[in-house]
Amino acid sequence: MDEIEEIKRRKLEKLLQRASGHRPQESYPSSPLHVNEATLEEVVQRYPLVLVDFYADWCQPCRMLAPVIDELAAELRGKVVFAKLNVDLNPGAAMRYQALSIPTLVLFKEGRAVDRVVGALPKQALLARLRRFMG
C-alpha cells in the first residue's frame, strides 16, 4: 500500500511541475550554455530564468567574470540557467539586446528581459541581483 502511495505522489509531483512550467533540476545545465543568434531565443524561452553573458574573448573584464558565471551556474542549477554569447561571432544578437559595452549581462524571466548589468560584478553582488527574480 505504501509503495503505491509513493508512486502516486511522485507522479502527481511530475504532473504539477509540467503544468507550472517548472523543469526538474536534472534538465538544467550545471555550466553555462554557449549560445548564438540562432539558439539564444530557444534557450530564453525554454527556461523560466536565464542570465545571458554577452562577452568577447579579448575582453579582460569578461575573462574576470567567467569563473563567477561558472560557479553560479553550478550553485544555482535548477533555479537559473546561464548562457554565454560571443558578441564578435554574433553581432546581430549583440545589437538586438543593446550589448554595446561588454560584459553585458541580460536576465530573462519567462522569455522577457527584466534586468541588465553592464560590467563585471563581484559574485555576491550578482547573486543579490539574481535573488530578486528567483522565486
Overview of this structure, please?
The protein is α/β, with parallel strands linked by helices and 135 residues long. The chain has one domain (29-131): Glutaredoxin (3-Layer(aba) Sandwich), CATH 3.40.30.10. Helix content is 42%, strand content 21%. The protein has five helices and five strands. A five-stranded mixed sheet has the order 1-3-2-4-5, with helices on both faces. The protein is elongated. The N and C termini lie far apart (35 Å).
List the helices and strands and how they pair.
Layout: H1 2-20, E1 33-35, H2 40-46, E2 49-55, H3 60-75, E3 81-86, H4 91-96, E4 104-109, E5 112-118, H5 123-131
Parallel strand pairs: 1-3, 2-3
Antiparallel strand pairs: 2-4, 4-5
| CATH fold assignment | Glutaredoxin
Number of helices: 5
Secondary-structure element order, as H and E? HEHEHEHEEH
- Which CATH class is shown? Alpha Beta
- Count of domains: 1
Strand order of the largest sheet: 1-3-2-4-5
Q: Which of globular, elongated, flat, extended, rod-shaped describes the shape?
A: elongated
Summarize the structure.
The protein is 42% helix and 21% strand. The chain has helices at 2-20, 40-46, 60-75, 91-96, 123-131; strands at 33-35, 49-55, 81-86, 104-109, 112-118.
Which tags fit this structure?
135 residues, alpha/beta, Glutaredoxin, five-stranded mixed sheet, single chain, 5 helices, elongated
